[in-house]
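#dry-run=false #mode=assembly
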Amino acid sequence: MADLARIQLDAAADGHVLRLGGELRRAAVRPLERAIRQASPRAGRALFLDLSQVSGMDSAVVASLIGAWRRAQVAGGQVTLGPMSQAAERSLAMFRVAVEPPAAPAPAGAVEALGGTAYGVRDAFWEFLQLAADATFAVGAALTRRAPLRLGAITQQAIDIGSRALGIVGLITFLVGLTVAFQSAYQLQQFGAAIYVANLTGVSMVREMAPLMCAILVAGRSGSSIAAEIATMKVSEEVDALTVMGLDPMQFLAVPRLIAITCMVPLLTALADLLGILGGFLVGVFYLDIAGEAFINQMLSSMVPWDLVSGLIKSVVFAWGIGLIGLYYGFKVRGGASEVGRMTTASVVASIFYIIVADCVFSVLFYVVL
Amino acid sequence: MAAALEVDGVVARYGERTILDGVSMTVQPGEVRVILGGSGCGKSTLLKCCVGLKPPDAGRARMLGQELTTLSERDQRSLLTRVGVLFQYGALLGSITIGENVALPLREHTDLPPDVIAEIVRLKLAQVELGHAEHLLPSELSGGMRKRAALARATALDPDLLFCDEPGAGLDPLTSAELDELLLRLRDRFGMAIVVVTHELLSIHKITDKALMLSQGKVIADGTLDEVKATPHPEVRAFFDRLAAGEMRGPPSALDVLRGPAPGRPPAARPGRQA
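#status=ok
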């Protein structure tokens, strides 16, 4: 039969007597705390513990008694241990008490947190530049054959980054081309200038939309996978294993990915150019009733080769950055599996931010400066 | 004969924390040196310092007579081909098969013809009784098999010096014992120097030629197992004689606290501010 918990508080000459009995478990803590507070031993008063009837105590009950002792210490009162059963003695002897528990670190103030963040960003940027330099040199070494050029690994990565992205890149840019054409047609028709849809679609796809959409898709697909893959390898000590086998992780992991992504993104962008224009073309022919030939002539007359080249230059720069950001977050990971997810997310956010900023810089460069 | 491994006054820090504080030891060829110590005493860091994964902040670690950090990249590579490392969780590359993992160091560091490499891989896998697993991916193996495969990879180039980070961790006693036997065979047949980080008493008694015990980044015992066991240091005692461990140190029990200071003795320091 269960030995029910019994808690009884009696007044005494110089304080209280707390008699405990039975099987004291977590559920007894609330009434116990009430009794202790009622007794509240302070200066000159004592709480006398009678544990002679106790048949068992769990950690919550012991913690409660220690809490009473601590408060009494502060208030200058006393908690005195009286008679106790063997079970009570065993329970009390089992738990160790941190007499002076360590203080929890004080949360940083707003200014401190801001400063900490600023230093963090500065350090992260510095680390990123170091990695970027290392990786660039490693690629240089591989291309000049001072280090082995791993064609197999590069091909594998190129398939992952390039071929497997063909479908989604094609579909998305086709839809974007379609949308751009519809949106511009809506305005241009008001002036009877629907034919200029060809100019708009062509130029905006080739110069802007195709490289941008393509880079964002690759950042989401491949940048994240570079970060996740390397972070996982880092967490499971695979990167360390490569290092102690005398295989430079930069050469072994970073170089094939960087070369592959830098070759594949411009190619994907070229495909995106074509399919985006196809989207616009279909709108022009079937919705605006422009003759196909007229549409193409109009579009070609509005474009110069530089439009195409500038788009491809952009895509190379985007790709290089996405690769480096993925590598940076991958190699940066410390600790366990949860960090892998966090770093992967961070790499995608950083990549997209980078793409937009770089695109902005390019726009200024191409339109204003050149 | 030159020592296989000489560690001389190695200090390692992570930020403010000093993990190793002047650790020295030597390991002779054909010797199994076991590094002991509780969690967080710096065992794994010592291993990392030896193989160059964490360059020491002070002191030197010389493997096979050469100090890794002072070598050119090329010489580093060639030194590392003479050293094998078995990581705690194997650290096999997850994207390639077991066979390709074992072949990797052979392919990268030797100009052996592919069919010879394939044959070596089969030899090495058979040695760890994984002949059937050549074409499986690491994720398709159990923990013990993965570790054995990792041992096959670590010994692919017949190293003169082998490091093992907790070879028995997470394995059942039987598998762990098999792995120990394998290490002893490698020592006996190839005269390999083997450095093992572990805290499994069973395997310590089985494989140790010489032991080194660390505590809070310092060497507290060094010598044969009997010599180490005879060291009077309380932590050594606690390690080998767990019964003593509980009474050795640590804060007072709840019983002591509630009983208060014994009558006649001055009261102990009290927490918090006095009212």
